[in-house]
Structure formats: C-alpha cells, structure tokens
Design a protein that fits this description.
The protein is mainly α. It contains 9 helices and no strands. Helix 1 runs parallel beside helix 7. The two termini are 22 Å apart.
Length: 221
C-alpha cells in the first residue's frame, strides 16, 4: 500500500492547489453568508472528491484483467492519454493567461456570496466534476489498478487522498472559524494573490503532473 500511496500523493497535491476551489472558499468566507455557507460547501467538496475518487477506483478495478491480453500496456496507454490531456489543459490555461486583459474572478464566482447552505453543498459537489478534477482522479484510480489491495487498504487510500486533496479548502475554513476577527486581512490578500497568479500556477502544476503521468504510462508499455 505504501507504493500506491506514494504514487497518489503528487496527484492529491495537484488537486489540492487547484485555484478554483480555493478562490471559491475565500469568496464564501469573505461573504456575509460565510457562517451558514462555509461548512456546507466544505462538506459538499469533501464528499464530492471522495465519491469521484472512489468511483474512479471502482471503474479501474472493474476492468476484467483476463480480457486484456497485456493489462500493463493497456494501463500505460490510459495513463499516457490522461497525462496528455492534462498537458493540453496546461497549454490552454497558459494561453488564456497570456491573453487575459483584466484581472478578476469569473462572473459566476461573484454569486457565491449569495449562496445559502444547500447551494453551497451543491457547488462543492459540482466543483469535483471539473475536467481537471476528473482527470486527476482518473489517473489516481488507474495508478492503484495493478496493486492487489484489500477493501480496507483502498478505504485508507481514499481517506488520505481526500484529506490531502481538500486540505487547502479545509484549512482556510477552520482557521477563519477559529479566528474570525483576524480572517478578513489574510483572506483578502489570498484572494488578490490567486487572482493574479492562478493561471501561472495552474499551468505549471498541470504541465508537471501531466508529464509525470505520461512518463509513468510509458514505463508500463
């Protein structure tokens, strides 16, 4: 299980530093509805990551090995495809960042300040079905495909992956709840930093993780 966990960590970290969930979290915490919306959003996001990752593991494990003549080659090809897709997303993100004329958040994000608990839960779930999240979870599910793990070990992997992947959403909400009087300043600074640097960070991380996944796939051919 240690080997599987080691392969999952970079993918979980890549998901954790995704700018969209972090920025949405900051916007919710800065909104007047933060007390009744922050924790529902957190619940929706954590549950969403766990469900998507569990589903990807189930789909990967459900592939019948006897049907595939060379299961490692099939797994390698799948990883190469996913890695190439992440590299493509990195290029798209980089091009959009270079051609962006104004710094700011998308219009739909400005609406999160008006969300109540139910909409916040739904938004947390919805963010887990973005292409980047699905590709990273799919890659994570495939990386443990060849490991003979028990249900208990898989449950531990899901828990650890989910905790790391959602840590950058959990931490601001917990810290803001523990010290609300000091939250406004660093939340505002975090928002400005993400608005200015999210495209660059996303491009670099997706590019690195995509190349790593492609390399992992090539070694399995």
């Amino acid at each position: 299980m240690a080997d599987a966990l080691g392969r999952l960590l970079p993918l979980a970290v890549a998901l954790a530093i995704s700018s969209v969930p972090i920025l949405v979290t900051v916007l919710i915490l800065l909104s007047p509805n933060s007390r009744r919306s922050a924790f529902p959003f957190l619940v929706g996001f954590v549950v969403g990551v766990a469900v998507v990752f569990t589903g990807c593991i189930a789909l990967a494990q459900a592939i019948p090995a006897p049907v595939v003549r060379h299961p490692q080659q099939a797994l390698g090809i799948a990883l190469i495809v996913i890695g190439a897709a992440l590299v493509a997303l990195a290029v798209i993100s980089g091009v959009r960042g270079m051609h962006a004329e104004a710094v700011g958040v998308p219009r739909w994000m400005n609406l999160v300040s008006e969300f109540g608990p139910l909409r916040s839960i739904g938004l947390g779930l919805l963010l887990c079905f973005r292409p980047k999240s699905l590709l990273l979870c799919a890659a994570a599910g495939l990386t443990v495909r060849s490991d003979r793990l028990s249900l208990g070990e898989l449950a531990v992997l899901v828990g650890v992956f989910t905790l790391i992947a959602t840590s950058t959403v959990i931490a601001p909400i917990v810290v803001a709840a523990a010290s609300p009087q000091h939250a406004q300043g660093w939340l505002t600074a975090m928002r400005h930093w993400i608005e200015k640097n999210s495209a660059t960070v996303t491009t670099v991380i997706l590019l690195i993780i995509g190349v790593v996944i492609v390399g992992d796939g090539i070694t399995r051919l």
